[in-house]
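Just wondering, can you check both lines?
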Amino acid sequence: MYFTQLHQQAEPLLLANVWDAASARAAQAAGYAAIGTSSAAIADILGYADGEGISFAELYALVLRLRAVSDLPLSVDMEAGYGETADAVLDKLFKLAAAGVAGINLEDSMVRNGVRELLDSTVFAQRLHAIRTGLQAAGVRLFLNVRTDTFLLGLSNALAETLVRSRRYAMSGADGLFVPGLVSEADITAIVADTWLPLNVMCMPGLPGFARLAALGVKRISMGNFLHGRMQQTLQQLYATVRNEQSFQAVFDHAGP
């Protein structure tokens, strides 16, 4: 499977996180090898809060548009799975696979009443195993990139808890381990040494450069919603400038060749 092979190279897979057809086209034109949806960015452009604020129907419709404009391998952020049971999640994964999706993200946290909370790792691992088993029984191949939010949520024992969770998830069918919020070289080294899963890190202030991440054994680098956030900041500034200066000159000052 081509997408799986992208996680087995000496140079990490730099995944372009996208949120609409235009960003997918831009990523492909820039020469990226794969794209992935950003749930936070998609929620923002549709006016929802992050944390499965959008419906799966809306997400699926966007996936179809992305597949229509880009032939790059696509990973879809499924957040906590959009389903109360493994079977409910599987129904949605079968639809994504039929649409040509190469992989998904599943996270071991959930937003409840606006607060993100870690799920019990044993319960999550059982759910993950049931999902993997269901995919195998149906002959469906999807790269399961499992996200743990131990560092993102600032646990005092984040490293130790990450190692416990990564072992459980690896034994339960995960193909990759995603640890957003991870920036320390010592922590990255410890996780890489402890798991056979390809490690995925995310754009964060203080994250080492890509060459250094490669040397540390990182296999996938994600952008999260940071590029979208920067673009929105620029757009807001431009709107304000046009209104304040009563001129469109700023639009053309920023225009490319």
User: Anything to note?
Assistant: The mean pLDDT is 95. The longest strand covers residues 103-107. DSSP finds eleven helices and eleven strands in the chain.
